[in-house]
């Protein structure tokens, strides 16, 4: 097994015109969904994206002319901290969805589950429809992020897949530590189209619109959630001079309203009202990032990958990230950015102040990061890696579970 991003790609013939049923539980565009959006594009004429909730992600897929269907009207309950009993009752709720997915899956060659609930549904639908399952693992499967019950469930089901694509070595390592089968897992980083991140000419206008002229702007681009650690950046601001301001881009996507409230309270308590703006969820991340002097990633739990870190690099902006999980694979401290211990507001403030005082050095590092990220995470190359892995699954399964063969079986032709 190879545990880096250089995949031991099989020699299966390409291209195989496989039809793929992608499954994702979310109606909202989080990082896993934005990653999926780029993966599905090459398959738009022979795929369906099945979602378990309606929302902005469906709209985004439609804008890109990708076939999408919302497969259930009910919102599903397999929460992070659910116990065994809750898990079982959730399974009851899932049955109509599983039946529907299994039926649809017969028209496709592969089921590709992109989230945990999609894995639960996809794994059972895979058995029923006799279609191979691919699981794209976007999470660090550890007790830091999940209940033991859900961990066990996720690993047991993932071990039934034909292929597990981990979004980083950190996610792969946690999967293996939780009992994942090493023969199934390959690391593929998120891919990005570098040309979409070059918007230097919008900087003055964006800064003017936000009233940020003359400020040193630190940007934070993440959904508002306790583990994303926005509060750490607020604490760090108190250790920086007044011209250092912060913009928080992102909203509480998955019900973290209490945390959002807490952040506003913290701003008031620290007297930071004039130095902080919450911009909510935005679709113009690139122009906002490009208007920043520094992008801060502050997760207090290990980040599985961290798209925003790569995006900041591609925008040519210096980035400081929490030293845990996938972020460590993305940033080489002092060369392509900075890493600070998770939750350490003082160290974060030190980096902010260094970048403010030594702007030429910060720009040089950002430039180096931009060059390196444009190569390491180039979307077409990443999509080719995925295509080769899927072709491997298609070839291995052909003759046993392929669409044509088992359609015949279903019709009693064997
Ligand atoms: N993002 C966005 N609008 C926002 C905030 C974030 O489009 O207002 C995007 C951001 O550019 C990134 C993704 O959401 O591509 C977040 O992915 P990441 O991997 O950083 O974290 P996740 O939320 O998936 O854990
Ligand atoms: C998940 C992870 C995030 C990762 C994204 C794309 O949302 O939380 O770290 O970047 O998936 O793989």
Topology:
Blueprint: E1 20-24, H1 31-40, E2 47-51, H2 56-63, E3 68-70, H3 84-105, E4 110-113, H4 116-129, E5 133-137, H5 148-158, E6 163-166, H6 169-177, E7 185-187, H7 203-209, E8 216-221, H8 230-237, E9 244-249, H9 257-270, E10 276-280, H10 285-290, E11 294-296, H11 307-314, E12 319-322, H12 327-330, E13 338-340, H13 345-357, H14 359-376, H15 379-397, H16 403-410
Parallel strand pairs: 1-2, 1-4, 2-3, 4-5, 5-6, 6-7, 8-9, 8-11, 9-10, 11-12, 12-13
Bound molecules: uridine-5'-diphosphate and alpha-D-glucopyranose.
Can you offer a commentary on this structure?
This protein is α/β, with parallel strands linked by helices and 414 residues long. The chain has two domains: 204 residues, 3-Layer(aba) Sandwich (Rossmann fold); 183 residues, Glycogen Phosphorylase B (Rossmann fold). 43% of the residues lie in helices and 14% in strands. The protein has 16 helices and 13 strands. Helix 3 crosses helix 4 and helix 4 runs parallel beside helix 5. The chain is globular and about 60 Å long. The site of uridine-5'-diphosphate has 17 residues, from helix 1 and helix 11.
Tag the structure with descriptive keywords.
16 helices; six-stranded parallel beta sheet; binds alpha-D-glucopyranose; binds uridine-5'-diphosphate; alpha/beta; 43% helix; 414 residues; Rossmann fold; disordered N terminus; disordered C terminus; 2 domains
Listed once per kind, the bound small molecules are: uridine-5'-diphosphate, alpha-D-glucopyranose
* CATH topology annotation of the largest domain: Rossmann fold
CATH class of the largest domain: Alpha Beta
Low-confidence stretches: 1-15, 78-85, 399-414
Radius of gyration: 22 Å
Mean of residue pLDDT values = 90
* Broad structural category: alpha/beta
Strand content: 5-15%
Helix amount, in percent? 40-55%
Tell me, what's the shape? Answer: globular
Q: Largest beta sheet: what is the strand line-up? A: 3-2-1-4-5-6-7
Query: What is the number of independent domains?
Result: 2
InterPro entries: Glyco_trans_1, Glyco_trans_4-like_N
Protein name: Glycosyl transferase
Pfam family, one: Glyco_transf_4
Keywords: Transferase
